[in-house]
Amino acid sequence: MKAVIIDDEEKARENLKFLLEEFCPEVKPVALVGTIDAAVEAIKQHQPDFILLDIRMKGETGFQLFDKLESVDFEIIFTTAFDEYAIQAFKLSAIDYLLKPIDVEELKDAVAKVSKMQNKMQSKEKVTNLIKNLDGEQNNLTKLALPTFDGLSFVKIEDILRCESDENYTKFFLKDGSKRLVSKTIKFYEELLTPHNFFRVHRSHMVNLEYVTDYYKGDGGSVKLVDGTEVMVSRRRKEDFLKNFPNK
């Protein structure tokens, strides 16, 4: 795989090149550049499979690259020192990132994901979604990128009614009655969506508290959602749920 490294610091570029050559032999760094304009030329010339892109550069940001490209048919791995809130935006947008200083194992994992990607044409849409999420307030991130069998489905967080675990997959149930089957665990989405008014009421179920209409008493009890669906609440999650539910 061909890679272009984009970072305004020469030492950072050389370090990434060394790490790729040493630990990712399937990757060939074809260009190392320090500005957005140089990156545009390198991408046009080499047509890389993916780029490693610094976000904060002197006088410009990595996001400006996408304003200068007609199409994005390569994968993107951002290198960043952003804070925890920004990292959540990356996860919601299904974009790989590496925190500086670069960890070798995380680099290898990111490269392995790139090699499995089949639909690179959605990269620009992922970046657009990321920028919107980064521009929002911490609890106002707008869209979640769901990796489905056909590619990516961009869903408004407010349109998600509930999530249901299906072994190593997660089913998303939306307000319009449609569903999405995603190849990630419900645990992954619990971490992402809990700050956005979601609550995991059961080992297999997570609900958007905005759409819970009723709670029915029982051993653990159950909740009813606006679409008429009834979901069980586990005994060990009952107390925490009742602390959250009356305030929603």
Describe the overall structure.
31% of the residues lie in helices and 32% in strands. It has 248 residues and is α/β, with parallel strands linked by helices. Helix 3 (84-92) packs antiparallel against helix 5 (123-135). The longest helix has 14 residues, at 10-23. The termini are far apart.
Please outline the helices and strands.
Layout: E1 2-6, H1 10-23, E2 28-33, H2 36-46, E3 50-54, E4 56-57, E5 60-61, E6 75-80, H3 84-92, E7 96-99, H4 104-116, H5 123-135, E8 143-148, E9 151-156, E10 160-166, E11 169-174, E12 179-182, H6 186-193, E13 198-202, E14 205-208, E15 212-216, E16 222-225, E17 230-232, H7 235-244
Name a few traits of the molecule.
five-stranded antiparallel sheet; alpha/beta; elongated; 32% strand; five-stranded parallel sheet; single chain; 17 strands; 248 residues
